[in-house]
Design brief:
mainly alpha; 2% strand
């Protein structure tokens, strides 16, 4: 069968998709490495003045870059954890408690933010969370918050926006696994004397672990590189590494340093992915054993 496949003309159909993947993956990566050593900005009239390693050295040794990188990962981890805490009961409710005929409707409702314009979503949440908005006004009238309290231009509003944006992806990832869990297994666990927490840890979590790790990857990676949300709603003290990279291309006009920062961030994210993959392999072996 393999020899027939090698002689089959159909094997050539893979080349268009392979070429697209090559052009959209490898070529931009090579350009990123190339421009990391550029001195100047190719988009200006003067163009690239030369090549230097100062961009790489500056990105690696800068304390500001280090602080922004840590802040970005801290926010990404916090947003991911909040999404997990909210998504598990939501996905479980849709998959196991709600009647089957209503599940598709609830899934559609839960992913509405994914179909909303990013800027529209950001400004809508900012309007709701301002001092005289629909959320803050009742809290201040009830005395829960002091008058004039505002969470705009802070880490809190950035985290809230990011959670709202990426929560649907976590719900979908978990729902795809929770739906497949046999209800008889849950009943058997309760029959054997396990409470809800024990059932979740010993039955639900192992069988939904792949969906959990997929959701973590889908949320953690893009959140760590976010720059639109902190730029618009975060203010100067909520800057993330993506904001610094964006400013190098749009404000400072230093493409070389921006590319070096992007390359450094890519390497850090690749290491993070490798660690997550290692954790997934270890967990799969233990769960399987």
């Amino acid at each position: 069968m393999n020899s027939n496949y090698r002689r089959s003309p159909a094997r050539h159909l893979i080349w268009p998709s392979a070429a697209v993947l090559l052009c959209m993956g490898l070529v931009p990566l090579c350009m990123l490495v190339f421009f990391s050593f550029a001195d100047g900005n190719v988009s200006t009239l003067n163009g690239i003045a030369g090549y230097t390693i100062d961009n790489i050295v500056g990105a690696v040794t800068s304390l500001t870059v280090g602080r922004l990188m840590l802040r970005s990962f801290w926010i990404a981890i916090l947003v991911t954890a909040i999404c997990v805490v909210i998504a598990y009961p939501a996905a479980w409710t849709i998959a196991k408690i709600v009647r089957e005929k209503y599940r598709s409707t609830l899934i559609m409702v839960s992913i509405v933010p994914a179909f909303t314009s990013q800027l529209l979503l950001i400004y809508s949440i900012m309007t709701l969370m301002q001092s005289n908005g629909l959320v803050m006004t009742p809290l201040m009238r009830l005395g829960i918050l002091p008058a004039g309290t505002s969470v705009l231009y802070s880490n809190g509003i950035v985290i809230a926006i990011l959670v709202y944006e990426y929560l649907p992806y976590m719900i979908l990832s978990l729902y795809s696994c929770l739906e497949k869990i046999d209800a008889n297994v849950i009943s058997a666990s309760h029959t054997m004397g396990a409470n809800r927490l024990q059932t979740f840890i010993n039955v639900v979590l192992p069988q939904s672990f792949s969906g959990l790790m997929t959701g973590i990857l889908i949320v953690l990676i893009p959140v760590a590189g976010s720059f639109v949300e902190p730029n618009i709603a975060g203010g100067p003290y909520s800057m993330m590494i993506g904001s610094l990279i964006d400013s190098q291309f749009t404000t400072a006009m230093n493409m070389g340093y921006g590319a070096a920062l992007s390359l450094l961030f890519l390497l850090v994210m690749s290491l993070t992915l490798a660690v997550i993959r290692l954790v997934m392999n270890i967990a799969d072996r233990r769960i399987g054993g």
